[in-house]
Fold each of these.
Amino acid sequence: MIPFSSSTTNRKGWQQQLVEGLRSAVELLDYLGLTTFLDSHMEEAAARFPLRVTRYYANLMERGDFDDPLLRQVLPSPRELETADGFTRDPTGDLTARAGPGMLRKYTGRALVIASGGCAINCRYCFRRHFPYQASRVGPGAWKPLLCELTGDDTVSEIILSGGDPLMLSNSRLETLVGELGRIGHLKRLRIHSRLPVVLPDRVDHGLVEILDETRLKCTLVLHVNHPRELTPELGRALEPLAAAGIILLNQSVLLRKVNDAPGIQVDLCEKLFDYNILPYYLHQLDKVEGAAHFLVADARAREIHGIMRQRLPGYLLPRLVREEPGADSKQPL
Ligand SMILES: *Cc1c(COP(=O)(O)O)cnc(C)c1O
Ligand code: SF4
């Protein structure tokens, strides 16, 4: 295990850091010394899906490098305005899988709760970029119908908190929700899908660790790391108390053109994840969402990359290469 020495800096709270995030292409490119690359089509793309990134994450980008793989994930591109065959607004069929307020039911035994509408960063390839979160998420104090439905359905043993990003919820709201879920006898597992620790490690505060440590539900945190440079000593320090509390740490990433579509990067990522106590879980083939066609890696190339990873990595560090097919009863291996 890497000993992540304890932090001595007295930083601002995570909610304040969210407020102070960057919100326009001008601001971000200026921050990175790249204003010459500013293009009015970026603003048009941002009008469809706003730019949003934390300063912490922007600080991981290479100043002066327009092709930086972290920058590519968040900077609106004129190419988002192009249409492409097969790329739609709801590629995963989430709109039809909505099962009552704030919930998606697609797979047996698991229910996915849209716990929050927002994210700390907006990833340009996100399959939920057109999803009507505001209409689907559960508003403050309105967990009741959802909890009633879960109480009445004993086929569900695992709850997945997703979003948006569920860790955008304050600890007090999260504590209430997790507490209520813990009272539903047939639930066994709680899974949280979040990118927040990766883009704002300070989110993993003492209160959050306590909530996950205290529930009787067995907890898994599935992070979303796409590139080895997103793994930092700060993130390592933030995750240590979670691992110490017995919370299983997994990672899912998305295969993205010119971000991580090289076997070397993927192998590095998987090995480095293990240094951080995180096991690779899924490597997703891109969901074909409108505006993200320029991130697509061809299936043949995806299989080739995965084949090389299989040769170079121990079995337990090889993520499953999958894609989501609307209507399928599980994620589909490629
Ligand atoms: C991905 C997903 C799950 C979880 O699937 P696992 O294979 O268990 O990780 C559950 N519900 C929905 C709607 C999903 O998209
Ligand atoms: S849901 Fe995940 S992938 Fe989509 S914008 Fe939020 S953090 Fe990024």
Amino acid sequence: MKFATKVLHAGIHPDPTTGAIMTPIYQTSTYVQEAPGKHKGYEYARTQNPTRDVLQENLAALENGNHALCFASGLAATDAVVKLLNSGDEVICSDDVYGGTYRIFTKVFERYGIKFKFIPLTDASDFAKHITPATKMVWLETPSNPMMSIIDIEEIASIAHQTDMLVCVDNTFASPYLQNPLDMGADIVIHSVTKYLGGHSDVVMGALVMNQEQIFEQLKFLQNACGAIPSPHDCFLVLRGVKTLHIRMDRHCVNAAKVVDFLLSHPKVDKVYYPGIPSHKNHLIAKKQMRGFGGMISFTLKGNNIDDAMKVLSGTKLFSLAESLGGVESLIGHPASMTHASIPKEEREQRGLLDSLIRLSVGIEDVGDLIGDLQQAIG
Ligand SMILES: *Cc1c(COP(=O)(O)O)cnc(C)c1O
């Protein structure tokens, strides 16, 4: 099956009892057994739920993986992955990661004796010299949030797999429509389903996709043992959202490319960060590993004045000022004070995350209207 068919059909079958074409919401906490241990494969809804099963099968197919597991949020999925490790293990993490990922690593798991090293990873050749015998995982996000850095997944995976390290890729920004890390050697793909997969800003959810049976069994154990599962109703909403993922992503890409052209020609705009721009540091890697450049853009203003940025942020009418991304409607955000406020200012600025940096999640509205809105807000 090709992608556009998978979003509609992979794992999805008419309901066996009624023929309902839509997967029912199995809103139940338990399942009746005929005799102790004699049941239809379902015992308790933390462990298994038919609506969740269908979504998991669908998401696995979209990432070309054998298995998927859904969690109550993207960070709950991250939490499960780190719990594969033991105290004393080390993780090498790309330095421009989602603020919440940075927070759970440094504020939660460091207390349990797991060490995290944040390095750029945008030069894969740099990676090997940070590996020690204790390094058990490399975690990377590409394109990254909010600097739109690109990391060569294939290169990092081939270096990592010279040891027994796990390669985890946060594929939230690209979505499985634009990039499939498992095909490039990743062991685990993580999604904040909240974003493009859900696509309608109405669900918080996370997912993990993998090929190897052993990793799947360990993560499935953690999903049940730690219990951060999504509700059946949310699984239904995501199954519904995913059906249009390919169409939405195509429009996100087209609209974002036009917004980038507008920003590049604007006299008040300083830098524009988008992997589709030929002068982007790793544009060629993006071209190699992505089928499109996505809907996320960051830019700074000349003079790097926070007040100028604040005027733009509160001046847009179509772009709503909000955290999150990947929904059909356009959002504007200020990473320094919103998504990345949990990262110390000094560390932020080392990564180019300046106070005037503005992040756009370009939606699927009419692009002329979107550009008009930015034009009036930037002035
Ligand atoms: C939002 C986000 C997360 C966290 O996901 P939640 O669903 O909010 O818990 C992780 N990674 C990236 C890239 C994100 O954008």
Amino acid sequence: MHPLPGYWSCCSLLLLFSLGVQEGVQGSPGAPSAAPEQVHLSYPGEPGSMTVTWTTWVPTRSEVQFGLQPTGPLPLRAQGTFVPFVDGGILRRKLYIHRVTLRKLLPGVQYVYRCGSAQGWSRRFRFRALKNGAHWSPRLAVFGDLGADNPKALPRLRRDTQQGMYDAVLHVGDFAYNMDQDNARVGDRFMRLIEPVAASLPYMTCPGNHEERYNFSNYKARFSMPGDNEGLWYSWDLGPAHIISFSTEVYFFLHYGRHLVQRQFRWLESDLQKANKNRAARPWIITMGHRPMYCSNADLDDCTRHESKVRRGLQGKLYGLEDLFYKYGVDLQLWAHEHSYERLWPIYNYQVFNGSEEMPYTNPRGPVHIITGSAGCEERLTPFAVFPRPWSAVRVKEYGYTRLHILNGTHIHIQQVSDDQDGKIVDDVWVVRPLFGRRMYL
Ligand SMILES: *[C@@H]1O[C@H](CO)[C@@H](O)[C@H](O)[C@H]1NC(C)=O
Ligand SMILES: *[C@@H]1O[C@H](CO)[C@@H](O)[C@H](O)[C@H]1NC(C)=O
Ligand SMILES: *[C@@H]1O[C@H](CO)[C@@H](O)[C@H](O)[C@H]1NC(C)=O
């Protein structure tokens, strides 16, 4: 059993005494408790809104109290609902997942909130409502493969978050290692660990291979992503960008339903069509999916194969994503899975399509790929193949994460932060595309 961080055991103990709740049947330490834990935010996609999600061990009401003043009473109230989640492990541990969506938030304004019910409240957290419209410059932290053990990037991400460096987080799959492990206690521990980041910033996700157990149920239950696909695929607008999150895992775990590959592909195509109609307003199309199409790591992963499934589809021809993303002029593709950082030259079908030799990322003639899976987990870092491929621009085998600054409709700034080098920026690149003519390459 994993010990709880001191903060949590003390709080649940206090609550235990104050409420006189008995030591429990749920098998979780200090439970069952009505005290909210694992508090995190997500953006439901509707301007002026934010969803708060948390866990309790007994059913309680779901309320968020919020306001603009850092201290004193919280005058605003929002109600939501909870659903029980029964983990697939032998203990069938039962969590109550609460969701409350705050609406009509003032754009760019900082709020203070707490969540819970009369039976127990969380501590107070702060977040800034996202700005509306396309004319602002979102800053994102992007990474994948962050575990409950060896979460190397987390201390710096916490500090960055406290300093207000980001508007949102993109976690590109693989959480906790694994959320279902130890009867989902590892999932609980992970969600508590990320709380200092995730309770202050919309924490946007896609599923990775480590979420696979029990048909991705821990992933679907614990996060609250936009749309009605349980967070497997969805899209949202953020400033000048349209961000598409999808599951590469549908290509690999076919026993959960082959139809999912086709359903997702059709959804992707229609979403890309819509995004292209809106491209004058939101010029950037950014995708996030866990397993990359290309990589030059020294392992046997799909991305090391010439005809990778994500790139070329099932049987090398069905529902491949490279053609689709190229056809609709996707600008930037964010990946993880490999525990390293790799940036590719603009690429399509193994051909490098630099804007020019001197400025490869200015008017690139193919999508730009970033693989950022080195946030830290128990599996540690992934080595690279000895000889870099001609399409590989930068490779960093160090723990870290990516900062993505979407400056405006034409300029994106990408930086790689190294935790091994105390926060040093180890990659720094601008992607520049003209405002018009972005619906397709050529
Ligand atoms: C797995 O979940 C998906 C939706 O999340 C569902 O469509 C599919 O039928 C499920 N598969 C199995 C075998 O339960
Ligand atoms: C792309 O640009 C980089 C950097 O200038 C250069 O090293 C590489 O050879 C270029 N590739 C092609 C195919 O032009
Ligand atoms: C975007 O920002 C860059 C860098 O500040 C600037 O050079 C460029 O003109 C801006 N583009 C638009 C469309 O405002």
Amino acid sequence: MTLSLAHILSARRTLRGVADATPFVPSPFMTKAAGQDFLLKLENMQPIGAFKLRGAMNAVMALPEGTAGVTCCSTGNHGRGVAYAAGLRGIRAVICMSELVPQAKVDGIRALGAEVRIKGRSQDEALAESLRLVKEDGLVEISPFDDPHVIAGQGTIGLEMLEARPDLHTILVPLSGGGLAAGVALAAKSINPDIRVIGVSMDRGAAMHLSIAAGHPVEVEEVASLADSLGGGIGMQNRLSFPLCRDLLDDTVLVTEDEIYHAMQVLFYEDRIVAEGACVVGLAAKLAGKVPAAEGPVGTIITGRNLDMTMFHDIMAGRDVQLGDVTVKGKPYGA
Ligand SMILES: *Cc1c(COP(=O)(O)O)cnc(C)c1O
């Protein structure tokens, strides 16, 4: 299947009334820092608190009549999207996650009525459990990123960004399995082939970045990160999101945990937005001088808000944060 703008336009019709257009607003602080209009696409305002509802909903609605149920592996937000969409269709959902997924995300999924399975310490182990359920219970697996309906659903974000600001010069996309980056880049470059799309990941376990560099999918060690939603591999059998990201992204850049920590403070103290570490990597990359200057407006996607509030309080207070065996040194904002 060759994905095109037509699939993204079709996804938008499917999503109408469930995952509608979100605001795309300038950040005055970031605009000053970037020397260009810097805009935030507020996907933290989706009903499940993350953009993943778009792809999940588009995939669940495409399933044939009589489908027994769905299953997926997830770092949390895709599972929440699938659970929500399955609830709207009235079918069973079993969400498989690793022990690295924060409790707040697990609780959110249970509250939507989905069944939850916690397996192992990696996305791969969660995926193995999901594939077992496909065999034994006849459920349909929905990949968090390597699925044409998921990619087309996420692509509707790119469509909205370019409709609101046809003059966008650069889009900074948080990058993990690459469903979001593939969809956004496909939409944006179909409308304006000259637009620059840059993927941003954390520097530990950046699966897509390393896979593009190697020319094929590679395995990464999964570690705890402030950007927990960006964890996990891209799948050694990746069919769609890897070639799309390889062909459509102009660059991929990496940010450190310290840079993510600081950018979370910036987004909260300057723009009063509560968001996950994964969402601020675009701001972090810009503030750290890791993306080249743009000759026009820059947009990034505030992908979700489903974070652990205790950790959020610690970061806003400038306290140290412990991530597995790594300590992110705290610093009060503005100090
Ligand atoms: C899933 C997710 C991403 C990354 O999306 P991919 O399609 O896996 O690259 C970014 N931010 C948040 C909050 C997410 O849940």
